[in-house]
Design brief:
Blueprint (H helix, E strand, L loop, with lengths): L2 H23 L7 H7 L4
Length: 43
């Protein structure tokens, strides 16, 4: 993989992770992070 492709791939992953973090932070009140992750295929 050339460096431009690697940088683009890393940027894409960071964007995806940031979206996942925002979604988790907006989980329903009273829901634990572990429960949210389990329900979203992240554990």
């Amino acid at each position: 993989m050339n460096s431009e492709t690697a940088i683009a791939a890393a940027g894409y992953r960071i964007k995806e992770w940031a979206e996942q973090i925002r979604d988790c932070q907006n989980r329903p009140a009273g829901m634990s992070v572990a429960d949210w992750c389990a329900g979203n295929g992240d554990l």
